[in-house]
Design goal:
heterodimer, A: 184 residues, alpha/beta, six-stranded parallel sheet, B: 196 residues
Amino acid sequence: MPGKISSARRAAAIDWPAAIYRALKRNRIRQVSYVPDAGHKGLIELCHADRGMAVLPLTTEEEGIGLAAGAWLGGQRAALLMQSSGVGNCVNTLTLAANCRFPLLMLITMRGEQGEANPWQVPMGRATPETLRLGGVKVFRIAQGADAFSRVSAAARLAFDGGAAVAVTISQRLIGIKSFQEKR
Amino acid sequence: VSAALHRRDVVKALLRDRGDILVVAGLGSSAWDCTAAGDHPLTFPLWGAMGSACMIGLGLALAQPERRVLVVTGDGEMLMGLGSLATIGAQRPRNLAVVVLDNERYGETGMQKTHTAYGVDLAAAARACGFVKARVIRKSTEIASMRSDAYRGRGPLFLQVKVRPDSPPLALPPRDGVYLARRFREALLGRRPKNR
């Protein structure tokens, strides 16, 4: 029906990568590192276009925890972008946040949730929130685009004003699923 | 050819009259060496997070582009963070120097051979990753030029020093990570960093 969209469609239409980018800017994030995920594509492009941010690809996710620690020692704030499969790579390095109370802000796009077509993504996806909690990281979740700005802002406040390690997981339902349809 | 240099002598020469440089010390013997050269608020020694020393140095170098940042670490710690050489190479920070004290051993765990003992060439890896200069230092006569590179050379620099696999007496830095981070930030940024 023209002119009428469901509430689910309306929520999906909210530009949540732009909302997260605004939250990062509002909270004075100066270094952004990432192992890419298709779900983070838009946010990564927005950050790369910003001359006020140093934006770095990593070879593995735990590098970003070290980077964030160094940034903080030098007086800057950092954010770390990854997909849920990268959380397992971070476990030992989380000791930096736990022992030094370095602020850590992680934005994690979820795989292995509703609609996942690749079973290899499921074990780490299922274990992601508990793995983070066991490593001393507080976990927030974005289930709807409308929550993106407020959740990331709240996480940044807790991280940088509270000296905490905070992760925001972004639901696969919001990101959309990877189809694995082969071209015919 | 067995290495002639002693790690403590190398680090003492490197950190004497250190001026305003910022130092990140990798866990284990490298952190003890830096402490033996003089505990300093602008040295951040690691007690864990193996493989992270270079990345902490990179974050610091990007945040403080006017200051020289020196990472002092061992071959085992560097091998665990080998990918960070690629991450640094992609950014090419001019103010970052990495010094690897290469005794070809895991010194804290029973002196097992590391990959460098089997011929893995760390300096070549750094060069391939885009480090502007990557040197191997073997003799005491090269220490002065190594120090000059570390303090003034255009980065990113990689200075691999072949040292004897000896175990000098422990010289332990403070263990409290919150204290280490706070004293570093206060010494660098002042007591109340504004707009951070």
